[in-house]
Amino acid sequence: MDEKDWIAIRVLYEEKNISRAAERLYISQPALTYRLKNLEKEFGTRLFFKIKNGIEFTSEGIYLADYAEEMIKKLQKTKDYILNMQKEVRGTLRLGVSSNFAQYKLPKILKSFPISFLTSSSA
């Protein structure tokens, strides 16, 4: 499995619908179906089955979706760590703040950061 597989499984688990998951992933529904069939072949088991309004994951599929979420987090943490090993700090800043704080106080705080810090691209 690679990062794209982990993301595909996780999005599908959240959406419970192949068409909506494909739309969120910006790929065609046949391409997502092909990827999922290859994963089922790789693991030698069914990961989900179709129901009236979408899909339902098997217990193996649920385990794999949980694993995918863990691996996505670990990969992002590794990317952030490696980027921060260099002299300049780069990456994505993730904040959890109230809407009032975000609207009234956060802009003043962000203005104090150097422009190059705010506009640099992250991997």
From TrEMBL:
<dbReference type="InterPro" id="IPR000847">
    <property type="entry name" value="LysR_HTH_N"/>
</dbReference>
<dbReference type="GO" id="GO:0003700">
    <property type="term" value="F:DNA-binding transcription factor activity"/>
</dbReference>
<protein>
    <submittedName>
        <fullName>LysR family transcriptional regulator</fullName>
    </submittedName>
</protein>
<dbReference type="Pfam" id="PF00126">
    <property type="entry name" value="HTH_1"/>
</dbReference>
<comment type="similarity">
    <text>Belongs to the LysR transcriptional regulatory family.</text>
</comment>
<keyword id="KW-0804">Transcription</keyword>
<keyword id="KW-0805">Transcription regulation</keyword>
<dbReference type="InterPro" id="IPR036388">
    <property type="entry name" value="WH-like_DNA-bd_sf"/>
</dbReference>
<feature type="domain" description="HTH lysR-type">
    <location>
        <begin position="1"/>
        <end position="58"/>
    </location>
</feature>
<dbReference type="GO" id="GO:0000976">
    <property type="term" value="F:transcription cis-regulatory region binding"/>
</dbReference>
<dbReference type="InterPro" id="IPR036390">
    <property type="entry name" value="WH_DNA-bd_sf"/>
</dbReference>
